[in-house]
Amino acid sequence: MTRRFSGLLIDLPPPGWVGRLVRARSTVLILLVFGLFLVACAGTSATGQLNADPANADPANVPVSQELPAAFIDADASAIVAAHEQVLVGIYERLLPSVVEIRTSRRLGLPEELPSFPSIPGFPEDRFPFERSGGSGFVWDDQGHIVTNHHVVDGADRLTVIFSDGTERQAEVLGTDPDSDLAVLKLLDRDGLTMPPAPLGDSGAVKPGQLAVAIGSPFGQEFTITSGIVSAVGRTIRSGNSQFSIPEVIQTDAPINPGNSGGPLLDRNGHVIGVNTQIISRSGSNSGIGFAVPINTAKRVIPELIENGQYQYAWLGISGTSLRPDVAELMDLPRDTRGTLVIDVTRNGPAEAAGLLGSDRSEQVEGLDLRLGGDIIVAIDGTQVRTIDDLIAYLVDNTRPEDESVLEVIREDGSRETIQVTLDRRPSP
After folding, report:
1. By 3-state DSSP, what share of the chain in percent is helix, strand and coil, each rounded to 5?
2. Which residues contact 57 (CB under 8 A, 6 or more apart)?
3. Catalytic annotation present for 84
4. For range 333-345, the mean pLDDT
5. From start to end of 178-307, where are the E strands?
6. Burial of 36 by CB count in 10 Å (0-12 exposed, 13-18 middle, 19+ buried)?
7. Does CATH place domain 314-425 in 3.40.50.300?
8. CA 36/CA 38 separation, integer angstroms
């Protein structure tokens, strides 16, 4: 059927079909409205379900502005974090009375080229410039002995030890060991002090991945606790005070900064496993690589510093390096040969007296000047030596001056020999 509306011709379906279509459209409209209502109800229901049972909700679907209820936090995860916090709090509270801040001042002498400096008008003759610095330390025993780093107190004219309760006492240097960067202070007055010794651990049992905690005064922020893990063990570093190295050093990523020096590095039980000493940094502040002198080294050194004011190390009298596979190959040895390649032998030293030979030639490989031809130490007193670190650690841990040791060496021609050497004491700087 065709009808005309305002000059337009429109084809319409039969009248009966039109009625059915209108009714159908009305039904669809009603269903759409009802569906929207259900969706709205479903949204309300979902919100109610989240509040009722947060464990079944998806955090990704929760609006940013909507704060998650406390019940949404996993109970087991929360307990683990709480336990970790409790360990750190416990360490801090137990060790705090045993940790000290050390402030130093050093009177700077006048340059010889400025002899008239004190006579400048208005400048008192007894007023000289001072250099002030500081570090950390910890109580060693109940006799008033404080352990810190050698470099913290080196050259200091005045030492002030500050406890966590604010008590200050003057101290004097009782003994230092530049080679291990350790020092012992003696309090001049202990009256009224409660100073429990810090419990000592076993650095030989420390493993990478274990919890590491440092307490000290970084940048003068006294009694600060930082934590991380033991990143590595068995490192060898230069002491920074002499030409000798410190073996078996503990590496940690627990933040250590200037002012932490001399403070304790602790395990999860609050036992001292090391004495914080150095960091590797391009900026001068922590970059996640810090070092601590192992406490087992301190156990050997500190008692002698208390008794004699110094510690004497055995001395072999060589400089060397770990034998690399490419160097071994250049020396016509199997690439898997390991040991300490002797580079130089100190004149009139124990090694020279025993007949050890140093390198006699060099060869350039990829721009590197490689020393060749010296003896290769592969064992000492029956203990295998694979690297220069092994040799240094053995000498420090197991020998003293005037001891006799037996070295097994590979000579330049590939033959093996046994050499007996009488160790001397390290020369003074």
Report:
1. 30, 35, 40
2. 49, 50, 72
3. no
4. 95
5. 182-187, 211-216, 224-238, 245-252, 264-266, 272-279, 290-294
6. exposed
7. no
8. 5
Q: Is 381 a catalytic residue?
A: no
Average pLDDT, the chain: 83
CA 195, chain centre distance (Å): 26
> How many Å apart are CA 404 and CA 333, to the nearest integer?
29
- CA angle in degrees (0–180, nearest 5) for 220-226-229: 140
pLDDT band at 76 (very low <50, low <70, confident <90, very high): confident
Active site residue 181: yes
Strands in 163-207 per DSSP E: 168-177, 182-187
pLDDT for residue 345 is more than 60? yes
Among 303, 305, 304, 252, residue whose Cα is nearest residue 279: 252
Question: In this predicted model, what pLDDT tens digit does every residue of 382-396 receive, in sequence order?
Answer: 999 999 999 999 999
The CATH code belonging to domain 203-305 is: 2.40.10.10
Q: From the candidates 145, 151, 242, 405, which is the catalytic residue?
A: 151
Catalytic residue among 177, 181, 253, 375: 181
Amino acid at 409: V
Q: What is the CA radius of gyration of the chain?
A: 37
Residue 363 has what DSSP assignment?
Answer: E
Q: Is 82 helix (H, G, I), strand (E, B) or coil?
A: helix
Q: Which of 203, 217, 261, 359 is catalytic?
A: 261
15/74 Cα distance (integer angstroms): 66
Looking at this protein, which amino acid is placed at residue 88?
L
Sign of the torsion angle spanned by Cα atoms 273, 277, 279, 285: positive
| Residue 371's pLDDT band (cuts 50, 70, 90) | confident
Confidence of residue 323 (pLDDT cuts 50, 70, 90): very high
Q: Tell me what the mean pLDDT of segment 279-304 comes to.
A: 91
Record the tokens describing residue 335, joined without a space.
């690439």
pLDDT of residue 292: 97
pLDDT number for residue 22: 41
Which of 210, 207, 216 lies closest to 229, judged by CA? 210
CB-based contact 320:343 (threshold 8 Å): yes
pLDDT tens-digit series, residues 110-135: 555 444 444 444 545 455 677 888 99
Closest to 385 measured CA to CA, from 405, 363, 407, 352: 407
The per-residue pLDDT for range 47-56, each reduced to its tens digit, is 334 344 444 4
